[in-house]
Design a protein that fits this description.
CATH architecture of the largest domain: 3-Layer(aba) Sandwich
Strand content: 15-25%
Number of domains: 3
Largest sheet: 10 strands, mixed
Oligomer: single chain
Shape: globular
CATH topology of the largest domain: D-Maltodextrin-Binding Protein, domain 2
Number of strands: 12
CATH class of the largest domain: Alpha Beta
Radius of gyration: 22 Å
CATH superfamily of the largest domain: Periplasmic binding protein-like II
């Protein structure tokens, strides 16, 4: 059986929901449902109890879930092992969406000018927690993530990069005062937010808890998992958003957007580079990629 079916079952059990598992797997809910139906037909047992609001595994489902996790772990180890012995020129990079939108295009352009014949090159986006897990599993060579959580990086090779600031942004058409603003003025607006698990959403909700408020205190909140759509909706005056300043700096300078801060909010978040493998070899593409990244953030480089 293809591992995608086992992975789907694992995610449904972890999430307790078809819709949440679909978000994690970046597929549609019907696709998840079809995969679960397929695996149940293959094994001849119902694997999920669908009677309640949360899906829980049946006795057969618990057994398959436990074995699936072990099989998927073995597959990850296998892929990592094959990757370590296959000495081709390759880079597998993963980052959070903000970094991917703001910084990655420039870094890729310079990198590809030097390594335009690279045999294997992949760039992926994901949430901070999943990136850390993927790096521990050896699935990528490099990762950059903005994060508000205090991750344990003690078992990883990391470089602290300059962080960025999260701000509320609004269209000038909404006529909100720029700079530090009263929270109630923002609560009167619709706010666009990312899905649960994204750093911007996590930081916003943590800040709101500190002042005894929730997302429900805004006039309404709309979940959109596309940064470009959030920025466009904000520019169109459909509501406000809590975004990286780097992401909307050009629009702020052009007067299309205004930035807002709330006293007592934590607006800063950290940014970390995680490196898997030897990047000290000056002739390696990995070293060159790290050097370009460090140069962009004004850090010392080991460029060839």
């Amino acid at each position: 059986m293809e591992s995608v079916y086992l992975k789907t079952l694992v995610e449904v059990v972890k999430a307790g929901s078809i819709s949440k598992a679909a978000d994690v797997l970046c597929v549609t809910q019907p696709a998840v449902t079809r995969r679960i139906k397929f695996i149940e037909e293959q094994y001849g047992y119902p694997l999920l109890d669908r009677d309640g609001h949360v899906f829980i595994p049946t006795d057969a489902g618990k057994l398959v879930y436990e074995k699936a996790e072990k099989m998927l772990a073995i597959e990850r180890e296998l892929l990592a092992g094959l990757k370590s012995i296959h000495e081709k020129k390759s880079i597998a990079f993963i980052c959070t969406p903000t970094f991917g939108v703001v910084h990655l295009p420039t870094i890729m352009r310079e990198f590809m000018m030097e390594y335009n014949d690279l045999a294997d090159l992949s760039f992926m986006f994901d949430m901070p927690g999943k990136i850390v897990d993927a790096m521990r599993d050896g699935m990528y060579d490099l990762a950059v993530l903005e994060h508000c959580e205090c991750f344990d990086f003690s078992d990883m090779s990391t470089i602290a990069l300059p962080g960025d600031d999260m701000i509320f942004a609004s269209s000038s058409a909404l006529a909100l005062s720029g700079g530090v603003i009263d929270a109630d003025d923002l609560f009167a607006q619709t706010v666009f937010v990312r899905k649960e698990g994204c750093c911007s959403r996590t930081l916003l909700e943590a800040n709101l808890r500190e002042i005894g408020r929730t997302l429900s205190d805004f006039r309404s909140f709309v979940v959109v998992d596309d940064l470009h759509m959030i920025v466009q909706a904000t520019r169109d005056g459909q509501g406000i958003s809590f975004l990286s300043r780097e992401l909307v700096q050009d629009q702020i300078e052009a007067g299309q957007l205004r930035e807002h801060l709330i006293n007592g909010f934590r607006h800063h978040r950290n940014r970390t580079l995680i490196i898997h493998g030897d990047h000290q070899n000056k002739k390696s593409p990995l070293n060159y990629f790290v050097a370009i990244l460090n140069t962009r953030f004004g850090l010392p480089t080991n460029k060839k």
